[in-house]
């Protein structure tokens, strides 16, 4: 079966410094791929290449079998949730108006807009300004906007950074529901290793280069592999050490 | 209301009111996007470039409005490209636009030893001097700006909200931004008759920041902004006629008064709610 995403020998240089170096991997239909890596590892750059925002990369990226640089129409099948950015309180658009923006290029379907808002449990806030909602709720609005066009692929770039843990859990439940119930393929970058272990069936670890790509269990179940990843790849950037707790959780701790 | 009916019988007043209403509508619509993109002073900068364009037209003996259109559109598109292709902050690129337009205007005026046209009306506007030709140009501008904004309405909101998300939605953000800048340019040129180069920002900014305090939803905010702007210009023209004041200054002061009243009312409402919550 043709992969949903095929990244082949991807390299990208920013001011002659490599942000991504010879990265190759594929994402199959129904996969939930968690991408982990330290700050500055190139996760956002990778997404921007995959989404056609950055086009001057080396290598090849195919979405749904088409070269992203040749065929931007495939983006119609992709929902994108960027890193959380707080919306100004005075921004006048309501939840309903923001979600309807996800249907640009398609015929506006009020029922689909309402269903997407309901799916993220914000139906009580339909006519509220997005700026008046909490940051977690704002992120759910962006998810509803991504869902309203009924995407086959959802790409989320550290969507829960800076959001409290209770809201994060709700968010993770939502992602799980989308992958299991709606069969949406998800590519998601996060610093929350425990959540990635819990939710993703595949993992990719990048730090400019691809350190690992494969089944989640093969990475998280292999202490030596995790340890080598954390020690050799992350320590240099963040002074972090990997420690498995008594409960079996994977914790990253500052040295 | 009687005062309005008294003055509406004059032809110059009919033209003044019609053009003022037409201008306030497009300034409110275009202005909301400029304010939310944090380009509030873009109108001011474009007006100064227009001043340079008018001076150029007068200097080379061409109808000044045409040179104003060409210079303003080329400068605005150029500055937008500069912003997109370099890391110059938007407010700095606007400052470059503003000062260069003014500098060109001043040099051309000094070379020619001054122009015969009333520079005062370019700088401060005079809606009572609107001719039939001016009115036609203003109406054509409305007939272009309103439908184009309507067609690109959702796309403009998405670009204003988040340019990256707009790109991922497959929008040609650069092209739509350029189109919007051209619409903003022709709106500003049409508006100079009303308030002049120096007060143009008031029409772009004040009704919109007032409406942003009141409106829930993009469409409602646009309607409230248009209503505030129309009320201010019509009321301003009537008052300035009877009290023999400068119309542009009067309109702007009415807008500012409405802005201040809105702030006070919002604060009073907030305090009252707080008191009621504390009592309960």
Give your account of this protein's structure.
The complex is a heterodimer of chains A (255) and B (280). Chain A is 32% helix and 28% strand. Chain A is an alpha/beta fold and 255 residues long. Chain A has one domain: P-loop containing nucleotide triphosphate hydrolases (Rossmann fold, 3-Layer(aba) Sandwich), CATH 3.40.50.300. The longest helix of chain A is centred in the C-terminal third of the chain and has 16 residues. The termini of chain A are far apart. The mean pLDDT of chain A is 84. By secondary structure, chain B is mainly α. Chain B has 12 helices and no strands. Chain B is globular. Chains A and B meet through helix 2 of A and helix 8, helix 9, helix 10 and helix 11 of B.
Identify the most extensive interface between protein chains. A-B, 30 and 24 residues
Oligomerization state: heterodimer
**Count of β-strands of chain A:** 12
CATH superfamily of chain A: P-loop containing nucleotide triphosphate hydrolases
Rounded to the nearest angstrom, the distance between the terminal CA atoms of chain B is 45 Å
CATH architecture of chain B: Orthogonal Bundle
The overall pLDDT of chain B, averaged over residues, is 86
**Percent of residues in β-strands of chain B:** under 5%
Counting H and I runs of at least 4 residues, what is the number of helices of chain B? 12
Which CATH first-tier class of chain A would you pick? Alpha Beta
Shape of chain A: globular
Q: Helix share of residues of chain A?
A: 25-40%
Overall pLDDT score of chain A: 84
Q: What is the count of distinct domains of chain B?
A: 1
| CATH topology descriptor of chain B | ABC transporter involved in vitamin B12 uptake, BtuC
Question: Helix coverage percent of residues of chain B?
Answer: over 70%
Rg of chain B, Å, rounded: 20 Å
CATH class of chain B: Mainly Alpha
């Amino acid at each position: 079966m043709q992969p949903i995403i095929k990244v082949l020998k991807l390299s990208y240089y920013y001011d002659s410094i490599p942000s991504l170096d010879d990265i190759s991997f594929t994402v199959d239909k129904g996969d939930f791929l968690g991408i982990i890596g330290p700050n500055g590892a190139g996760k956002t750059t990778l997404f921007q290449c995959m989404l056609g925002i950055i086009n001057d990369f080396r290598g090849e990226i195919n979405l749904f079998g088409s070269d992203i640089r040749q065929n931007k129409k495939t983006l119609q099948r992709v929902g994108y949730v960027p890193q959380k950015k707080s919306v100004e309180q005075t921004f006048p658009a309501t939840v309903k108006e923001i979600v309807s923006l996800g249907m640009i290029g398609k015929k506006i379907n009020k029922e689909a807009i309402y269903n997407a808002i309901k799916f993220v449990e914000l139906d009580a806030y339909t006519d509220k300004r997005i700026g008046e909602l909490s940051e977690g709720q704002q992120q759910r609005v962006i998810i509803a906007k991504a869902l309203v066009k009924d995407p086959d692929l959802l790409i989320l770039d550290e969507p829960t950074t800076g959001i409290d843990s209770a809201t994060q859990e709700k968010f993770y439940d939502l992602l799980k529901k989308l992958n299991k119930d709606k069969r949406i393929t998800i590519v998601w970058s996060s610093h929350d290793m425990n959540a990635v272990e819990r939710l993703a069936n595949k993992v990719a670890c990048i730090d400019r280069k691809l350190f690992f790509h494969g089944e989640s269990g093969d990475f998280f179940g292999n202490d030596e592999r995790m340890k080598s990843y954390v020690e050799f790849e992350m320590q240099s950037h963040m002074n972090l050490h990997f420690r498995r707790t008594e409960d079996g959780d994977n914790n990253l701790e500052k040295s | 209301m009687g005062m309005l009916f008294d003055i509406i019988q004059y032809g110059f007043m009919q033209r003044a009111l019609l053009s003022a209403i037409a201008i306030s509508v497009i300034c409110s619509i275009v202005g909301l996007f400029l304010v939310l993109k944090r380009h509030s002073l873009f109108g001011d900068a474009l007006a100064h470039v227009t001043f340079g364009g008018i001076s150029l037209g007068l200097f080379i003996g061409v109808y000044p409005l045409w040179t104003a259109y060409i210079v303003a559109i080329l400068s605005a598109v150029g500055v937008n490209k500069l912003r997109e292709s370099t890391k110059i902050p938007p407010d700095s690129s606007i400052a470059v636009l503003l000062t260069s337009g003014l500098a060109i205007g001043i040099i051309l005026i000094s070379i020619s030893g001054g122009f015969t046209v009333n520079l005062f009306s370019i700088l401060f506007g005079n809606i009572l001097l609107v001719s039939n030709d001016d009115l036609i140009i203003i109406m054509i501008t409305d007939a272009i700006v309103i439908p184009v904004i309507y067609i690109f309405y959702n796309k403009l909101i998405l670009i204003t909200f988040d340019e990256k998300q707009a790109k991922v939605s497959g929008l040609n953000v650069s092209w739509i931004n350029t189109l919007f800048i051209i619409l903003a340019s022709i709106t500003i040129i049409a508006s100079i008759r009303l308030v002049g180069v120096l007060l143009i920002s008031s029409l772009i900014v004040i009704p919109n920041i007032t409406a942003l305090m009141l409106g829930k939803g993009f469409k409602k905010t646009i309607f409230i902004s248009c209503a505030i702007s129309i009320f201010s210009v019509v009321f301003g023209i009537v008052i300035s006629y009877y009290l023999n004041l400068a119309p542009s200054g009067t309109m702007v002061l009415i807008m500012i008064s409405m802005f201040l009243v809105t702030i006070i009312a919002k604060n009073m409402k907030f305090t009252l709610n707080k008191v009621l919550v504390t009592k309960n």
